[in-house]
# Entry
Amino acid sequence: MSKTVTAILALSTLLLTVTPVFADESQTLKGEFVWERSDRDITGDLKAVFEPTGDSAWNVSFHFTFEEKQHVYSGTAEGSLTDGELKGKVMSDGEEPKPFEFEGTSADGSFQGTHTGFRQGERSPTGTLTLSR
# Structure
């Protein structure tokens, strides 16, 4: 067997062994949120930590500051962090947790989407979010 073929086989074996390890690691994306309000939009830095729970399934936590208070909204997500659809549901922190949903599209490792809250059981758009590696 030639040295080139041996090198290709060794590299292929290494990649097949290492790739699943990366897929099982947590992924942290950073970006920005926009909270749309009738009087003015509020923007802020956003960190999202995705912990894998299965095939394209994640536990997710969003870390951000809103009106000078630190928040962590946690829940689940499904889809791709690199290319394709991504959506999820999280609960706000605090004394009276409220549900929020997010959805959007990932392309080349960046995510652009919207977030929605619920008022009196009705969906209410709340803004946008962008994330990248």
Summary: Strands lie at 27-35, 42-54, 57-66, 69-79, 84-91, 99-107, 110-119, 122-132. Helices lie at 3-23.
